[in-house]
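To whoever is on call:

I kicked off a structure prediction for a single chain this morning and the downstream step that reads the tokens threw a length-mismatch warning. I double-checked the sequence; it's 140 residues and nothing unusual in it as far as I can see. Pasting both halves so you can look.
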Amino acid sequence: MISKELINQKTFYRYYPAHSSAMTVSYEGMNKYGFGIYFLDNSLYYADRYHHANLMAIRPNLKNPKIYPQSPTRIPNSAYLKELIKFISSGSHRYGRNDFSQHLLDSGYDSIVIPEPRGIYLIFLKNDPMLYTVIFDGRT
């Protein structure tokens, strides 16, 4: 089982376009786990997609992450999907992944940790510099 302590000992990576900020919360509809700042513990997975990009490496210092259990064969994570469906069907006037992320943030979570076959996603729900230490930030 993944714990906050284990996550806080790992290094996470993010590729981002040159001339932009790595720590800007993204609200794009293509974000499969709602809005956030996405990192992955596998530095090589996205390397071929981002030529002339910057690579940031961080060590998290999470306080209250929402940690989902391992889902080795499902993308997106099945535990996340079950919770999202429950949220949507609860009769709330909120209807999507971004609304669910806002619900998690409003509930006091600072991040989401989601294991997938390609690695562990760490998604910050807001940019709080107290939640991470930058190890490396530069051009690839």
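Update from on-call: the warning came from a stale cache, not from the record. Cleared it. Sanity check on the structure: Helices lie at 4-9, 78-88, 97-106.
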